[in-house]
Design goal:
binds FE2/S2 (inorganic) cluster; 6-stranded antiparallel β-sheet; 8 helices; binds flavin-adenine dinucleotide; globular; 7-stranded mixed β-sheet; 30% strand; single chain
C-alpha cells in the first residue's frame, strides 16, 4: 500500500506577487511526474499539503480550477516558517505536494442554483477556483446568476486584480469589489463586505451562498444573509483550523466529532451551529 504521507514532487513554474511587495504570492506548480497530476484529481474547495524539506508541511487551499490544465496554483500569505521559505523560493525549485484533501464545495448541489460568492482578504483563493470553474464556457449554462462580492482592506490587498477586472466586464457575472479604505487613484467601491452584501442584496431564491474570509467578516455577513432569506443550510463556510496529517488520522483538527480536514473544510452554517464553538 502506498504511504499516504509521501508527497509528490512538484516544480515551481511561476511566482506571482499578488499584492505588490506585500505578503501574498501565488505559486504555480507542475508535477515532475505527469502521472502524479492525473492522480491529483481535485475540485474547487479542496486543499493540499505543501512540504519543504527542512522547513515543514502546511495545508493550503487549491486556488486553481481543475479546468485550468495540468498546473496547480496556490496563493499563500507569508506567516511563519514554511510560508516564508516558500515566499523566498524561485521558479525551478522542487517542493512536495500531497492531496487533494477535504470535501471541497458540493459541486453537484450547486448545479441549477444561483450562486453568491462572498470573499474577504486572501481567503478568496478557493472561491477563485470555484468562480473559474463555474464560468467555464461548457459549464456556465448549468448555473443561474453568479454574484461575486469580494473585499480587502486596501486596493493593494486585493488579490487576482486583473482577473477581477476581466470578470467585472462580463455580462453573465455580477461582480462587486470593495475595499475598507480607498487610496488616491482608487475609483471603486469603499465599504466593508457585509455592508456591500446588504446593498447588493442578492436574492436567496434558489441560491447558495459561499462565504470565505476573516472571522470578523463572516460574523457580520451571516446575519445579513439571514435577513436576505438565506437558510442556514444554504450558506457554506470553509474553515482553516490548524492541521497536521490532513487525512483524519492525527486528531489535530477536530471540532467535536468532526475532523475539519476530512469532514470539511467546507461546512454549511447549519452544521457549524451544531458543532462546539471551537473554530
Ligand atoms: C484547509 C486550510 C486551507 C488553508 N489555505 C490557505 C491558503 O490558501 N493560503 C494561505 O496563505 N494559508 C492558508 N491556510 C493557512 C496556512 O496553513 C497557515 O498560514 C500555515 O500553516 C502557516 O505555516 P507557517 O509554517 O508559515 O507558519 P508557522 O511558523 O507555523 O506559524 C506562524 C504564525 O501563523 C499562525 N498560524 C499557523 N497556522 C495557522 C492557521 N491554520 N490559521 C491561522 N494562523 C495560523 C501561527 O499561530 C503563528 O502566529 C490554510 C489552512 C487550512 C487548514
Ligand atoms: S489534520 Fe490530522 S486529523 Fe485532521
Amino acid at each position: 500500500m502506498e504511504n499516504p504521507y509521501l508527497p509528490k514532487r512538484v516544480r515551481i513554474e511561476k511566482v506571482i506577487d499578488e499584492t505588490a511587495g506585500k505578503d501574498i504570492k501565488s505559486f504555480v506548480f507542475s508535477f515532475v511526474n505527469p502521472q502524479d497530476r492525473q492522480a491529483f484529481a481535485y475540485h474547487p474547495g479542496q486543499f493540499a499539503e505543501i512540504s519543504i524539506a527542512g522547513s515543514g508541511e502546511i495545508p493550503i487551499g487549491i486556488a486553481s480550477s481543475p479546468t485550468e490544465g495540468d498546473m496547480v496554483m496556490f496563493t499563500v500569505k507569508r506567516m511563519g516558517v514554511v510560508t516564508r521559505e516558500l515566499h523566498n523560493s524561485s521558479p525551478g525549485r522542487i517542493v512536495g505536494l500531497r492531496g487533494p484533501y477535504g470535501n471541497g464545495f458540493p459541486m453537484e448541489e450547486l448545479k441549477g442554483r444561483n450562486i453568491v460568492i462572498v470573499g474577504g482578504g486572501f481567503a478568496f483563493t478557493t472561491l477563485r477556483a470555484l468562480a473559474v470553474y463555474l464560468m467555464g464556457d461548457e459549464r456556465r449554462k448549468d448555473y443561474g446568476d453568479i454574484t461575486v462580492i469580494y473585499g480587502a482592506r486596501t486596493p493593494g490587498d486585493l488579490i487576482y486584480r486583473q482577473e477581477l477586472q476581466a470578470w467585472a466586464s462580463r455580462k453573465d457575472m455580477n461582480v462587486h469589489i470593495t475595499v475598507d479604505k480607498g487610496e488616491p487613484g482608487w475609483e471603486g467601491r469603499e465599504g466593508f463586505v457585509p455592508a456591500v452584501v446588504k446593498q447588493v442584496a442578492p436574492s436567496a431564491k434558489d441560491a447558495i451562498a459561499l462565504v470565505c474570509g476573516p472571522p470578523i467578516m463572516i460574523k457580520f455577513t451571516i446575519p445579513i444573509l439571514f435577513e436576505l432569506g438565506f437558510a442556514a443550510d444554504k450558506i457554506l463556510n470553509s474553515l482553516e483550523m490548524r492541521m497536521k496529517c490532513g487525512i483524519g488520522k492525527c486528531g489535530r483538527c477536530n471540532i467535536g466529532s468532526k475532523y475539519v480536514c476530512k469532514d470539511g473544510p467546507v461546512f454549511t452554517y447549519a452544521e457549524l451551529q451544531n458543532m462546539p464553538q471551537e473554530y
